[in-house]
Structure formats: structure tokens, C-alpha cells
């Protein structure tokens, strides 16, 4: 059982940002694609040029396909879209984090707004799921984000940072290298509306600042903070160029291998740029 270390103060102030050194592009197919279509996607991706240096890629197919894709399928990290908050036992229909590990899963998306809003994942459930994922040695892609009403009433920073507080604050420092945060404004998911680069950057900077306060600057710099919400080839370069945006969690545009690849290539351009700044080249 993960135990909270110290109480850490919720801080909504800004601190200078720090870059994660790799870009991360994560796809979420949600409840889409037949099994054959999933295999065709895997083949199409395998036939493409190697993933650019400095970019990590993950795809989260529907759960019934995980074992097959884990043993022979996708040329990238394998993600799950959900996990049980409980361990093994009499929990019909649930699947545990250890079961996912056995299927070749490396990353688990937790706290997606579609699960929070449609399937009863409360803040407490989400925190439990985060714990289960990390206890199993997997990496968690923790989703947070505000509704349109939250943004219109100017409580969006409070909303997001409280979600962080509820699911992340209690974690011990040593698991933070297996935590990815995905900021996904609910009003931008699947709607075609995208946060502007400024809106994304200021929220990502607030999340980074919160991580610095809650843990420390070194740990905060290593947590990839992804943007999600109608990210597509036409806006990925601009969003990824923001200093605190370390990649994207992609829904609709991850369903087509070509558009997913175009987003990976956008991440590759940004990664190359960040590496050249790091090395002073
Ligand atoms: P979208 O979905 O890219 O289709 O907006 C993003 C998500 O829900 O993760």
C-alpha cells in the first residue's frame, strides 16, 4: 500500500517552469475500432519510419485487445484506458493493475473526464486507481481538467489543482518518475475546440508549479505534462512548442495512423529543438 509522505501545501502560485526532457504522445482509442481494425493500425504503424529521437509514444486500445497487442502488436508503449480500484477477488467485470501488467501494459490512463462524468469515478476512486497502478509498477497517465462552466466562472485553476491534490499529493516522492499528468479541458475534448497555446501553457505552468511545491523542482521537471482536447496535426506544433507542454493525449486524431504519425512528428520537431537548446547546439 502506498503511504502518503508528508502533507504538502496546495499552492496555486506560479514558479518558473522546467522542461521534461522527452516529448510523450499518447493515443486513446476510447471505445472505437474492431479487433481487425486495431491490428491493421498496428501494421500501418509498424511500417512507418522509426519514432523520432526524444519522443515516447503510447497507444491505449480497448481493453479486450490488450493481451493480443501486448504480445505481437503495436510498435510503441501499450496503455490501458482504465483499471479497477480494487485488487483481485469477487469483482465481476473489473480488471486489476497486475492483470494489465501480465498483458504487456506499461501505462494506464486514470481519471479521464469521460470516466469521471459518465462512470462514477469520483476523486476518491481516481486516487485509489492511481495507487493501484503505481503499486503494480506501471506508469499512470493522470487526467485532470475543468468544465466550460469552471472556466467561465474563473475557477479552472482551483478545479485542476484540487484534482491534483486529491490524487497526487499523497504519493511518495520515489514514484513520481512514473507519473504523467494530462491536462484535458473538458470543453475541448472531442468538440473540435482547442485550448489556445496561451491557455494550455498557463495551466501547465500552474501544474508544474504545484508539483514543485508538492514535491521538489527536480521531480516536477521530470513529470511529463500532456495537453489533451482536440489536439491534431494542424495545432500540435503550436501546442507542443509551449515550454511546459511535453506532448499530448490524443483521442480522435489517434484513430488514423497518418494523423497520429503527424502528431508524433510534430513532437519530434519540438524534441529536436529542446535537445539542441539543452546542448547549446
Ligand atoms: P480528443 O480526445 O483528442 O478527441 O479531443 C482527447 C481525450 O479525450 O483524451
Describe the protein:
The structure is a single chain. Helix 2 (66-72) links the parallel strand 2 and strand 3. With 281 residues, the protein is of the alpha/beta class. It contains 11 helices and 8 strands. The longest helix is centred in the C-terminal third of the chain and has 23 residues, at 257-279. It has one domain (23-279): TIM Barrel, CATH 3.20.20. The protein has an 8-stranded parallel β-barrel with strand order 1-2-3-4-5-6-7-8, surrounded by 6 helices. Helix 7 packs parallel to helix 8 and helix 10 (233-240) runs parallel beside helix 11 (257-279). The chain has helices at 35-46, 66-72, 97-102, 113-118, 123-135, 148-152, 156-167, 197-214, 217-222, 233-240, 257-279, and strands at residues 23-28, 55-60, 77-80, 107-110, 139-144, 179-183, 225-228, 247-250. The structure holds 2-phosphoglycolic acid. Residues 28, 184, 189-190, 228-231, 249-253 line the site of 2-phosphoglycolic acid.
Q: Ends: how far apart?
A: 45 Å
User: Level of helix content?
Assistant: 40-55%
Described by the principal axes of the CA atoms, the overall outline is globular
Domain tally: 1
Q: What is the CATH superfamily classification? A: Aldolase class I
Rg result: 18 Å
The run of helices and strands is: EHEHEHEHHEHHEHHEHEH
Give the tally of β-strands: 8
| CATH fold description | TIM Barrel
Average residue-wise pLDDT: 92
Largest sheet: 8 strands, parallel, barrel
Uncertain parts: 1-18
Bound molecules: 2-phosphoglycolic acid
Q: How do the strands line up in the largest sheet?
A: 1-2-3-4-5-6-7-8
CATH structural architecture: Alpha-Beta Barrel
Derived structural class: alpha/beta
**How many H/I helical runs?**
11
Amino acid at each position: 500500500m502506498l503511504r502518503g509522505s508528508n502533507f504538502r501545501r496546495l499552492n496555486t502560485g506560479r514558479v518558473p517552469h522546467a522542461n521534461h526532457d522527452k516529448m510523450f504522445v499518447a493515443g486513446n482509442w476510447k471505445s472505437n475500432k474492431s479487433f481487425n481494425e486495431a491490428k491493421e493500425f498496428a501494421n500501418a504503424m509498424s511500417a512507418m519510419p522509426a519514432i523520432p529521437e526524444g519522443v515516447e509514444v503510447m497507444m491505449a486500445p480497448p481493453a479486450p485487445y490488450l493481451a493480443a497487442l501486448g504480445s505481437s502488436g503495436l510498435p510503441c508503449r501499450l496503455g490501458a484506458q482504465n483499471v479497477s480500484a480494487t485488487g483481485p477477488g469477487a469483482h465481476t467485470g473489473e480488471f486489476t493493475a497486475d492483470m494489465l501488467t501480465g498483458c504487456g501494459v506499461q501505462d494506464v490512463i486514470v481519471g479521464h473526464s469521460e470516466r469521471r462524468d459518465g462512470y462514477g469515478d469520483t476523486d476518491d476512486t481516481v486516487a485509489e486507481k492511481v495507487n493501484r497502478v503505481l503499486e503494480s509498477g506501471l506508469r499512470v497517465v493522470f487526467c485532470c481538467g475543468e468544465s466550460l462552466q469552471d472556466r467561465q466562472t474563473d475557477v479552472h485553476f482551483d478545479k485542476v489543482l484540487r484534482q491534483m491534490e486529491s490524487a497526487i499529493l499523497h504519493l511518495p516522492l520515489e514514484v513520481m518518475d512514473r507519473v504523467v499528468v494530462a491536462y484535458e479541458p473538458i470543453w475541448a475534448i472531442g468538440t473540435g475546440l482547442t485550448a489556445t497555446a496561451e491557455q494550455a501553457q498557463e495551466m501547465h505552468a500552474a501544474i508544474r508549479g504545484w508539483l514543485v511545491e508538492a514535491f521538489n523542482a527536480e521531480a516536477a521537471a521530470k513529470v511529463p505534462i500532456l495537453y489533451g482536447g482536440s489536439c491534431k496535426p494542424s495545432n500540435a506544433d503550436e501546442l507542443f512548442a509551449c515550454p511546459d507542454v511535453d506532448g499530448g493525449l490524443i483521442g480522435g486524431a489517434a484513430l488514423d495512423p497518418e494523423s497520429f504519425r503527424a502528431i508524433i512528428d510534430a513532437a519530434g520537431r519540438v524534441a529536436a529543438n529542446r535537445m539542441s537548446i539543452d546542448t547549446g547546439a
